[in-house]
Automatic annotation (TrEMBL):
Domain spans labelled PRC-barrel: 12-85
Official protein name in the record: PRC-barrel domain protein
Domain of life: Archaea
Record-linked Pfam families: PRC
InterPro entries the UniProt entry points to: PRC-brl_dom, PRC_barrel-like_sf
Length: 101
């Protein structure tokens, strides 16, 4: 069951500290905090730290985290699986490289 479907506070806070992986098995980062909607009834994003430096070069250099939209979450268990992060993150860099080359 997705945590935003359950209003038990300990279920939501238990996401903090979990590792996040893409559905292809690539480590993305670790949940440091959650973004909730105004009413606090649903999670809208995961604030990630301890990021994969290959995916988030600029953010890891500056010590910043990233927020992943919760709609990307596909499964929550011992780890959290999300869709498409590698393609979404790398796509702007690849386009930039094509423009430079």
């Amino acid at each position: 069951m997705r945590p935003d479907m359950d209003d038990t506070p300990q279920e939501i806070t238990s996401l903090v500290g979990r590792e996040v992986y893409s559905n292809n098995g690539v480590f993305v980062g670790e949940v440091e905090d959650l973004r909730l909607n105004v009413d606090g009834q649903a999670i809208t994003g995961l604030a990630l730290g301890n990021l994969n430096s290959e995916l988030f070069t600029d953010a890891t250099r500056s010590g910043q985290g990233v927020i992943v939209p919760y709609r990307w979450v596909r499964a929550v268990g011992d780890v959290i699986l999300i869709n498409d992060v590698v393609e979404r993150v790398r796509q702007p860099d690849e386009e930039e490289e094509e423009l430079i080359a």
